[in-house]
Specification:
Layout lengths: L3 H9 L7 H22 L18 E2 L2 E6 L3 E13 L8 E7 L11 E9 L9 E9 L5 E8 L16
Antiparallel strand pairs: 1-3, 2-3, 2-5, 3-4, 4-7, 5-6, 6-7
Length: 167
């Protein structure tokens, strides 16, 4: 658990940080505190599941979202949307987060399989600490749209044909 002094130190740094290392340390401490609280409550961390119902309804949109990858660090998405994708042939469900990258962002960007540390999307509880598929699609006007997909940990019903057999 965080001590009162450590919590006061984190609150004091909300408006300005001396270094990215300090910010990373504060975020890691807060995530560890969150994980400890969830463990005490018996909640399984990092899973996007619910018994019989959805814990995070989709589609959902927000003004901005912040995404943190293990290697690439944090990125901001503009106009993000979360939506459920159709199940695949084997009945696995997937979810997708998509949003526009800021025009000022340059350099290398994540692609392919990446480790997603966390996502801050106002109004939704998002999975943490999972591997995701990342793709970036450029448009004619130079804008770039990032999509992040992950497999849901929700059991699916098998797809059947009209005669009752599995497809």
């Amino acid at each position: 658990m965080l001590t009162a002094d450590r919590f006061a130190e984190i609150c004091a740094g909300r408006t300005s940080y001396r270094s990215t290392e300090q910010l990373d340390r504060d975020v890691q401490d807060l995530l560890a505190e969150r994980a400890e609280l969830l463990a005490r409550l018996g909640v399984e961390q990092g899973k996007d599941t619910a018994d019989g119902g959805e814990s995070t309804p989709a589609p959902h949109t927000a003004r901005t979202a912040e995404v943190r990858f293990g290697v690439w660090g944090s990125l901001r998405l503009i106009g993000p949307t979360v939506r459920d994708l159709e199940p695949d042939y084997y009945g696995h469900f997937y979810r997708q987060l998509g949003g526009w990258l800021p025009d000022a962002l340059s350099g290398e960007l994540p692609r392919g399989t990446e480790y997603l540390e966390w996502v801050h999307m106002p109004g939704l509880v998002m999975p943490t600490g999972i591997n995701v598929q990342v793709a970036i699609s450029p448009t004619r006007d130079g804008s770039r749209y990032m999509t992040i997909e992950w497999r849901r940990e929700r059991p699916a019903t098998p797809r059947t044909t009209e005669r009752g057999g599995n497809r």
